[in-house]
Amino acid sequence: MNLIRTALRKPITILVLVAGLxxxxxxxxxxxxxxxxxxxxxxxxxxxxxxxxxxxxxxxxYFGKNYVNLLLYVSGVKxxxxxxIQSLTLIKLTFYEGxxxxxxxxxxxxxxxxxxxxxxxGTNPPFIIRFDASTLPVGQLVLSSKTRSNNELQDLANxxxxxxxxxxxxxxxPAPFGGNARTVVIxxxxxxxxxxxxxxDQLVAALRVNNLSIPxxxxxxxxxxxxxxxxxxxxxxxxxxxxxxxxxxxxNIYIKDVATVEDGADVTVGYVxxxxxxxxxxxxxxxxxxxxxxxxxxxxxxLPRFQSLLPEDVHLSYEFDQSTYVINSxxxxxxxxxxxxVLTGLxxxxxxxxxxxxxxxxxxxxxxxxxxxxxxxLFHQTINIMTLSGLSLAIGILVxxxxxxxxNIHQHLSMGKPKALAVWDACQEIAFSKLLILFCILxxxxxxxxxxxxxxxxxxxxxxxxxxxxxxxxxxxxxxxPVLANWFMKxxxxxxSSKTVLLKKKPISDAAIMKRADIxxxxxxxxLQQKEILATRTDFNNDGVITRFDIFxxxxxxxxxxxxxxxxxxxxxxxAVSVVLAIALLTLIGRDILPKADIGQFQLRIRDxxxxxxxxxxxxxxxxxxxxxxxxxxxxxSISSAMIGIHGSQFSxxxxxxxxxxxxxxxxQVAFKEGYKVDMDT
Length: 682
Description:
By secondary structure, the protein is of the alpha+beta class. Helices cover 49% and strands 17% of the residues. It contains 21 helices and 20 strands. The longest helix has 30 residues, at 385-414. It is elongated. The protein starts with a helix and ends in a 10-residue tail after the last strand.
């Protein structure tokens, strides 16, 4: 009650506060982070340990089991999962909620260093990465060329593109997918080696001795101190051919006499197909604290700069943009808000015939949404699928607060009351009822505040969005709506006996208005009794005109009066039917964490028989692409990208982002052109 009284007595203060919410709310909309999911702080650490040449069984025996035995002593470990494939052991450590992850990472690093003593000789230290759900790839930066090989594209991606990611805040990326590391390949000829009595060990020893990095010395001549570098490192690939081989005789034999030298790549274990042709792409990920939308937009702005660094025959493009998920959600929220505002305004116009009241109702919708975003920003939340879902749900509820208030004000104006008194009586009459409804709605989402782990991270932002929007809606209906109604709404019809007096020019005092409407100060103590008298009138507005809505209202009131004697039975039947229908529908409806979103993209994992060669897997992927093109039409496919086989041992962090079990597996991603509509389930 005091809230309404304060608003009516100090309307300028209310308008200033609402203007402040608008100003800071719009500022919050401009600065708040836009992401796909809320911050899901998963207590997970990955260990990726490569060792070339070992089979999965050997990786498990020499690395996986030894790691597990040591990592069990790390504080807070909940579970340890290992995946062993050829040349790689991937370990996922999950910790209990509340574990100090900085301390956990330090302990994992310490135990991993301790484990190096029991591993095979020549083992390099592992990669230890703190991984979070928000660091999943949000797109692909594709390099394609009609003339260059995958290995050349791999070098270009690493040297010119990936090194420039530091200029984009929040952007991170693993090594490129689809290429192999540049390697100097020396192919020895067994026949020539036997002819010169050269063994493979002699060849390896010559390579090791003649390609060393030796520290430089100094030569002091007079007053000068000169650096004297030792020319022991080979700078050109062709110079490997001139390395001498010691045979114990005076014969001069070089590597070029028994082998060939190539500037090539490592053994191919996997590659990428872009639109059916071998290529390379960089998975685009972001840091956990960065905004997906900002990272993607900054990357798109930097594409011309990256393209200028590449040769003319190499094309760079950003594909499979996952930020469209959240942008589509924003568009849906805006469309729902506009539809809700328009429909609500039309209903007010249709049933009340008051365009000014409709404007007041429509004005509260953006006010509540903007204020909700402001409070989300203050509580360090982001705009994501969950918060947008909460705001979308709130739109359908928050319009009721202002609509009910405007309708009740109209009822009190119809009694012939002065406008200020009608506004006061209408708002204070339903204040407690609206507050009770607000608590009932918020009670539904109260369990979200007690959730922990992933469910808590997902549903708490949704509950906060609904809570902020609903509380703001209630406050606006008790402050802004009364103020605007008192200023803008017209009070044209006042009643005296059964005659209508139209006020247009001559002002009348409030006392005279109340006297003409037969309203006494004593009757103000029971406004419900006033409504009972109002409800018995067929001419609701007492203006001499009985509208169709007045007739419908009277008939509906009589219908309710007939049902009231049977209210207990009707209530029991209603509850029973509702429970039965809810149970029946619950068995039919699907179950999923998030609703389906058709953005014209899909991903397919293809798995052949174990041991299948990578060439056979590639043929199967091409066959699937041909079938897809025949179904939807090649002209409707924007781009297709397939990772086939496993990642090279030099890029052992890549399996964290896309795990491949062997050459028999492939992951195909397809994006359709914008505007092409198709049922993704079929």
